[in-house]
Write the structure tokens for this entry.
Amino acid sequence: MTTQLGPKKLSTRHELMALAEAHGKTPKELSELFNYNYQYVYHIRQVPEYKLLVREYLKRITESTIDDTSELLTMFNREAPAAFQTLSTLHKRADRDATRLGAAKEILDRSTVAPRKKDSLTDGERGTVIQIGIKKMQNIITALKDVGDEETLELIEGEYEEQE
């Protein structure tokens, strides 16, 4: 025989707690926010009606986020031609060279036909970039000097000097 330790009916505070949980609050945060004992929060979260309510709120939040995103994309698409026209006008008619150049760069940066920057390395030269501190780098150099690995030392020191 199992007994339900949570409430038999959800109160308005419990519904608000379900909403807060759907928005990502942890049980500890819920207990602090609603001034409930942590064990009480645990028991409320086990109530089937509470679980259903959290799922319903999550669904609503997800749907509203999707609606908001599509509405925002629609607004951007509606304003894009006017924004491009503004950049185009600045590019062609601005008094200052810097303004015309800036507008031209903005247009090219958003263009699908503009050439993209390419890495100076060929595929065979690509490697993994590792960031280490100066102290650690000095320790590595000292260790290489101790074992007499001049070839690796020259490679590292050459790369290290290029970065400075």
